[in-house]
Design brief:
single chain, Rossmann fold, 5-stranded parallel sheet, alpha/beta
Length: 264
Amino acid sequence: MLNVTDGRGAAVSLQHPPERIVSLVPSTTETLFALGCGDRVVGITRYCVHPADRLGGILKVGGTKTLEEDRLRAARPDLVFGNVEENTPEIFSVVASVCPLYAAFPRTVDEALADLLATGAIVGQPEAAAAYHARIVAARRALSAAPFSFAYLIWRKPWMGASGETFISAMLAEVGGRNVFADQEARYFELTAEALAAADPDVVLLSSEPFPFKDTHRAELAAASGLPLERFALVDGEYCSWHGVRMAAALGYLGQQRARWDRR
């Protein structure tokens, strides 16, 4: 019997490792392949893009916010992986009528590390998960950086930022980051250029996802806020927001980027 507790606090029990897995989370899809479960993944979302050379031909069951129930049922899964932040309660209700659901919800690096081990346990790959866990812990210990303040934007029209209650904020804290909007009640919230100027962060990070910020948006927001253009930096959203095996490379990436922000 395999027993784990997911991010909702729900107990997930299986008699044996799942043979037909559907992943509704891009970062989890990548993790499942890295743990050696790729041949058991029978359904993914259209946003699952890694590993790119292994996903061709796998059934797409919808997006992270929209699920095609007929496709899910056609996949005949014995376990679905979801995420409380990325998927919806309505999707979880549909999944619950089909098969067991494991839903992650890491908001801190420690929670993400625990989730990785739980994922490895429920798919019967605890040793592979432990190996990645060790790599992430080692990458974490290697980091050192002076404190800096930041704002992290995820959307345009309206401008939207990430609060302190997000995994994004936790990852940036690993390289010394202090979120100037940490106290926002909503985890993702609307903000104005005036509010950004008043918060006066050392760096404004513009993510590649879900909105794909470009250099033109750096200039736009700098002009609107009155903050110097050099304070605005484009950042890879996958490395800032994806939990799972990507975290080892992500911590190294953020350490390198942190050095660049110091030179601005």
